[in-house]
Design a protein that fits this description.
Length: about 140
């Protein structure tokens, strides 16, 4: 069963997909979001779901360090609810605290330039979110 992982931001949505066995996550793309209108990404997400035969979605939930949910987290929950309704699929929220920081560290350790990091950071964060979810299922 393939799972799609999403790192939902105000300007972009990082997308990762699992292998068919549900063991590993691979980054596939970053979807641009105009003016925080994440709903415009749904047609592209539908294409990816069909292309990769995805059966479930995991959406990163950015919690505050004390575990509370702030405005960004609330926006992600709203988007996850919209995905459930529009796509008629199982959507799981996954705590993504520090996923972008971890992705940044991985890219820095790989000596990726600042310009290239900016282009792939959201996709890498989606990989971190999805891999955390997949590891929890093992």
């Amino acid at each position: 069963m393939r799972v799609l992982g999403l790192d939902v931001g105000t300007k972009t949505i990082g997308v990762a997909v699992s292998d068919e066995m549900g063991w590993t996550a691979q980054g596939i793309e970053t979807i641009k979001v105009p003016n925080e209108k994440v709903h415009v990404s749904i047609p592209r997400l539908q294409e990816l779901i069909q292309e990769y035969s995805v059966e479930a979605l995991v959406v990163g939930l950015p919690k505050n360090m004390n575990g509370t949910i702030g405005p960004r987290g609330e926006a992600c929950i709203e988007f996850a609810d919209l995905l459930k309704e529009e796509l008629q699929m199982e959507v799981t929220m996954w705590d993504e605290r520090l996923s972008t920081v971890a992705a940044e560290r991985v890219l820095l350790s790989a000596d990726v330039s600042r310009k290239k990091r900016k282009k792939v950071i959201d996709k890498m964060a989606a990989v971190m979110i999805l891999q955390g979810y997949l590891d929890s299922k093992q």
